[in-house]
TrEMBL record:
Segments forming domain Up-regulator of cell proliferation-like: 97-391
Leader peptide range in chain numbering: none
PANTHER family assigned to the protein according to its UniProt record, in alphabetical order: GTP-BINDING (PTHR14819), UP-REGULATOR OF CELL PROLIFERATION-LIKE (PTHR14819:SF9)
Protein name (Swiss-Prot/TrEMBL): Up-regulator of cell proliferation-like domain-containing protein
Lineage: Eukaryota, Metazoa, Chordata, Craniata, Vertebrata
Pfam families tied to this protein: URGCP (PF25496)
Highest taxon of the lineage: Eukaryota
C-alpha cells in the first residue's frame, strides 16, 4: 500500500486528509456541481460525484468512471483500426478503483459523514468497511461508530410461524461471522464468488466490488487491507432464503501474508474463515496460530498452474483438516456447482456456529491486536458518557415518557385542549370573551413553564455541551 498523498491529491481530498475533515454540511451543500448529473472530466470531481449518487441511494454510485476515461469509443469514423489495435488496452487513462474512492472518503471524513456513508451504503446493499486501513499510520481502525446507525430487520427461524421479526442496531446483533480471505495469488475471484453466494439465481447483486466490475480491475492503491462486512438476514420464506440463519460476512482485501493483523482479528471473531489459495507452501504458518478460534476451510482451484494436490494433502494433515474442510473447484466444476458447494458448507457452519459475537463485543480483541476504534476519540467518549447518564434511569420506556416527557403526557393534552378552545370558544358562556381568552393564555403559559422546568432536569448540562458532542449524544441515545 503506497503513501496516500498522491492519490488523495488526484481526488482533490489532500486538504481534507491532513487538515479539516469533510463534514455533513459540506457534502449536503447545493452548488453548481450538485445540480448536474455530469461528473465532468476533472478527477477531483469523482469523490463528490460518488457522494451525490450515494446520498440518493443510487445503486450505481460505485460506477465512478467518467466519460473521458474510456478509449473504447475513441476510434474515429474516418479511421479504421489496425489488427494490432485489437490487442491494445482499451482503457489507457488513469481510473480509480471504487474501493480506493470509498477508502479515501472514509479517511477524509468526520465521524458523522462516515456514519452517513455507511448507512447509505448499507441501504444500497453494498458492503461497508469493518476495518479501515490507513497507509500513513500503518494501522487499521474498527469502524464501530460508523455502523452504529445501521438498523436491520429480519425474521429468524424461531419467529417464522408467528410471523414476527427482530429489529435492532446491527452493531449490537450477536451473529456468527463468516470471513473470506486470500493467501498469496489466487486465480479465483473471491469477491465475485461471494456475490454469487449471496444472490438468488434470478436476482444477482454486486454486494462486493470485484475484478469484472467497471474499474474493478484498476490496481488498488489505498484499499489493500480493507476489510468489508455485509449481512445476510432471512425473511422467513424458505423458497427465497439462501440461509435460514442470520449471518455476517467479512471480506479482506489483499494477501493475508501482508495483513496479518486483520487476519488475526477475523480468526478470533469469526465462526469460520474460508481461505482462498492457489499455492499453500510458502505461507502455511499463518494458518497454524493457536489463538485462532475460527474453523478453517481451504478453497482452491485445480485449474491453476501452481495448484499441487500433494502439497495440499500435506498441509491439510499439518492443520488437522478433514476433507469436509477443503473445497476444490475441479476442472469439471462450473461456477454454479462451485457456489452451491460453498453455500452448503457455509450452511453447515451456521447450524452449529460455535461463536457468535456483535461488532460492539469485538472491541476487546481489536485493542489486544493494536487496532484502533473510531469510538475511542475524546468527543465520541464524552458523547457516550452523557448519553449513558441521560438514559441510566430509564427502566420502563412508557413510564419514563409519562413522567419526564410532558410534551407527550398530561400537560400536552391540556395544552392541546386550550389551543382548540382559543379558536372555538365553546365554553365561554356569558363571560367576557377578551377576559376568557386572556385566562386561556395565562393557563398555557403556566403549562409551558412546567415543561421548561423538566427540560433542565433531563439535560442539566445541555448549555455546556458543544455541537459535536451533542450529535454524538444523539447517536447513542
Amino acid at each position: 500500500c503506497c503513501f496516500p498523498t498522491v492519490l488523495l491529491k488526484s481526488l482533490g481530498l489532500k486538504e481534507q486528509y491532513h487538515r479539516e475533515k469533510l463534514s455533513l454540511s459540506k457534502i449536503l451543500q447545493i452548488d453548481e456541481k450538485t445540480m448536474t448529473d455530469d461528473p465532468g472530466t476533472c478527477k477531483s470531481n469523482v469523490p463528490l460525484y460518488f457522494l451525490k449518487k450515494l446520498m440518493m441511494v443510487n445503486v450505481t454510485a460505485r460506477t465512478v468512471n467518467h466519460p473521458g476515461d474510456s478509449n473504447c469509443d475513441d476510434v474515429s469514423e474516418n479511421r479504421k483500426r489496425n489488427f494490432e489495435d485489437l490487442f491494445d488496452s482499451q482503457n489507457d487513462a488513469e481510473v480509480f478503483n471504487p474501493l480506493d474512492i470509498i477508502t479515501a472518503l472514509f479517511l477524509c471524513s468526520d465521524g458523522f459523514v462516515q456514519q452517513e456513508l455507511a448507512l447509505k451504503m448499507s441501504m444500497c446493499q453494498f458492503s461497508v468497511p469493518l476495518l479501515l486501513p490507513n497507509c500513513d499510520t500503518k494501522q487499521c481502525t474498527l469502524m464501530l461508530w460508523a455502523m452504529r446507525d445501521i438498523v436491520k430487520k429480519y425474521r429468524p427461524p424461531d419467529l417464522s410461524e408467528s410471523k414476527g421479526f427482530k429489529e435492532e442496531r446491527i452493531v449490537l446483533s450477536e451473529l456468527p461471522m463468516i470471513s473470506f480471505v486470500r493467501l498469496g495469488e489466487c486465480s479465483l475471484s473471491k469477491s465475485e464468488i461471494l456475490n454469487k453466494l449471496l444472490s438468488n439465481p434470478q436476482q444477482y447483486h454486486d454486494t462486493f466490488v470485484h475484478h469484472n466490475m467497471e474499474c474493478g480491475d484498476s490496481p488498488r492503491k489505498l484499499s489493500d487491507g480493507l476489510t468489508e462486512i455485509t449481512w445476510y438476514l432471512p425473511c422467513g420464506n424458505k423458497n427465497m432464503d439462501i440461509f435460514s440463519e442470520p449471518v455476517a460476512l467479512a471480506n479482506l482485501r489483499g494477501d493475508i501474508a501482508a495483513h496479518e493483523t486483520q487476519f488475526s482479528f477475523l480468526c478470533q471473531t469469526s465462526a469460520a474463515v474460508f481461505v482462498f489459495f492457489d499455492q499453500l507452501e510458502p505461507e502455511c504458518k499463518l494458518l497454524t496460530n493457536k489463538n485462532h478460534k475460527a474453523k478453517i476451510f481451504l478453497v482452491g482451484n485445480q485449474q491453476s498452474k501452481s495448484f499441487t494436490p500433494d502439497v495440499l494433502k500435506d498441509r491439510a494433515s499439518e492443520l488437522k483438516l478433514t476433507t469436509d474442510n477443503i473445497i476444490i473447484k475441479t476442472k469439471k466444476t462450473n461456477d454454479a456447482d462451485f457456489v452451491r458447494c460453498l453455500r452448503t458448507t457455509v450452511s453447515s457452519v451456521l447450524t452449529n456456529p460455535g461463536l457468535k459475537m456483535s461488532i460492539e463485543q469485538m472491541t476487546n480483541i481489536a485493542h489486544e491486536l493494536g487496532i484502533s476504534i473510531d469510538e475511542d476519540s475524546p468527543e465520541c467518549q464524552a458523547g457516550r458518557e452523557n448519553a449513558d447518564a441521560i438514559t441510566a434511569e430509564i427502566k420502563d420506556t412508557f413510564k419514563f415518557k409519562e413522567k419526564q416527557f410532558h410534551l407527550q403526557g398530561q400537560i400536552w393534552k391540556e395544552l392541546t385542549y386550550l389551543e382548540k378552545e382559543e379558536f372555538r370558544l365553546r365554553k365561554v358562556g356569558s363571560e367576557d370573551i377578551e377576559k376568557y381568552k386572556s385566562d386561556l393564555k395565562m393557563k398555557k403559559e403556566e403549562l409551558r413553564m412546567k415543561q421548561n422546568s423538566h427540560i433542565q432536569t433531563i439535560f442539566p448540562s445541555l448549555p455546556d455541551i458543544d455541537y459535536v458532542c451533542l450529535n454524538y449524544i444523539l447517536g447513542y441515545s
